[in-house]
Structure prediction request, 339 residues.
Amino acid sequence: MERRVNRQWRLASYPEGLPRESTFRYEEGPVPEPAEGQVLIRSLYLSVDPYQRGRMSSRRSYAKPMEIGDVIVGGVVGQVMRSRHPGYREGQFVVGLLGWQDYALSDGEGLRRVDLEPGLLPGALGVLGMPGLTAYFGLLEVGRPKPGETVVVSGAAGAVGLVVGQIAKIKGCRAVGLSGTDEKAALLREMGFDAAINYKSAADIREALAQACPRGVDVYFDNVGGPITDAALTLINLKARIIICGQISQYNATRPPRGPRQFHLILAARARLQGILVSDWEDRYEEGLAALAGWIREGRLRYRETVAEGFENAPVAFLGLFHGHNVGKMLVKVADPAV
Ligand code: NAP
Ligand code: FER
Prediction:
């Protein structure tokens, strides 16, 4: 049923350290009317992502922060309710950065049509969306894994990490993943990873990683930073590639991180360490999505989603990312598609 109000989550304050429920403010507003050239989109699934933490801070970064009072910036899979745009029809599914709200207007900028059956729509925010593309381009373009090499990924049971490890296997590599529970480690093995480490229960992360990587580490895909990354760097091989994708262990830090900073290891291995931003490959998203969809069809790429039910639960789902409450992509279901 169509709603008459537009529920919204807005930024109430910039958090110090870990965000809290009080970081967010709930509001209701009118459902907006599309002007000529615009579409009105109803949200079906909201994405919660670690990068949103970065937008809740005035620290310098690659994107400008949210202002206090802004609707929370976030990816959404939605359905076109009304169209005054020649490129969109009512009923079509779309994905875009439409924010944590029931309804949004778009002029088509940054909007992408999603041609998936309704049951597969959440995939457009995960394996067939921004996180899947991050794994695809980050690993293949920067990691350049070769058959027989060892690829280590941190945050391995998350949206990006699960895809990274499986692409490593598709490319003939040894895939090793780190995640925060025994259940997640078991899932990684079931998904074809050659070895999986529970970094929270390991007596010594470096020792566990050394055992899992008898031939050292050729590619390290870093989603988390901190002590896991310090351990991985001690095991890199000559000409290793290190992809700095995310540093979630540091996103809530109130002081700059201190670490072993063993950069002589990078020097000795003549390794390459490169930060990545998925949007740098925006002009190649179709290529990446086609490759990912092909592997899914062939049964070579599997995925998981953790779906929170209900608009009201978006903040809690987001906070759960920092406690490892998700397996695969974390999302919030807010409405069923209209048929
Ligand atoms: P995700 O992995 O699905 O969810 C976050 C996971 O991080 C949690 O499930 C948790 O798993 C782990 N985690 C939380 N705190 C941790 C800590 N202190 N130490 C170690 N692990 C911790 O998230 P995602 O969307 O796939 O993103 C993964 C990373 O990639 C994030 O750092 C994100 O910022 C980054 N990213 C970057 C780009 C880019 O363009 N550069 C694009 C997308 C994502 P455990 O149970 O294993 O702790
Ligand atoms: C993007 C580039 C990067 C984007 C998200 C990210 C939503 C995520 C970065 C991170 O997690 O650090 O265009 O779009």
In short: The CA atoms of residues 286 and 318 lie 28 Å apart. The chain has nine helices and 15 strands.
